[in-house]
Amino acid sequence: MIVPIILGMVIGVLSSGSGLGGGFLVVPFLLQLGKEAKVAVGTSFLFILTVAISSLFAHAKVGNVDWKSGGFLAIGGILGAQFGPLISENISDQNFKRFFAVFLIGTGLWLFYQSSRTVS
């Protein structure tokens, strides 16, 4: 029981500092514990929700929230989020893991490329 709490704390710090949500770390951890992919994804949202609320308050306290942009993104996110579970329900664990790995690698490469560009 202590390992998930410590891991949750570490992921919470990384999530609230980077804005990445933490699911990209929680899902692999849950998969390693033997959870099905769709259960790992669904369970990660409990973590993401609670950390996101806490992080929102902390960032708002120091003035780091653009409420208008965040609100519009949230509307689109709420609508789009209705389709994710339908997709994950119809994909095998093996294919999910492959897609997730490619997505993480692609995101990492994109971030690396963006960080190497000079700002003019």
In brief:
This protein has helices at 2-18, 23-32, 37-61, 67-80, 84-89, 93-116.
The secondary-structure element order is HHHHHH
* Overall number of strands: 0
Describe the global form.
Answer: globular
Low-confidence stretches: none
Question: Helicity, in percent?
Answer: over 70%
Describe the structure.
The structure is a single chain. The protein is mostly helical. 80% of the residues lie in helices and 0% in strands. It is built from six helices and no strands. The chain has helices spanning 2-18, 23-32, 37-61, 67-80, 84-89, 93-116. α2 runs antiparallel to α3 (37-61). The mean pLDDT is 87.
Layout of helices and strands:
Elements: H1 2-18, H2 23-32, H3 37-61, H4 67-80, H5 84-89, H6 93-116
Helix pairs in contact: 1-3, 2-3
Which terms would index this structure?
6 helices; 120 residues; globular; mainly alpha
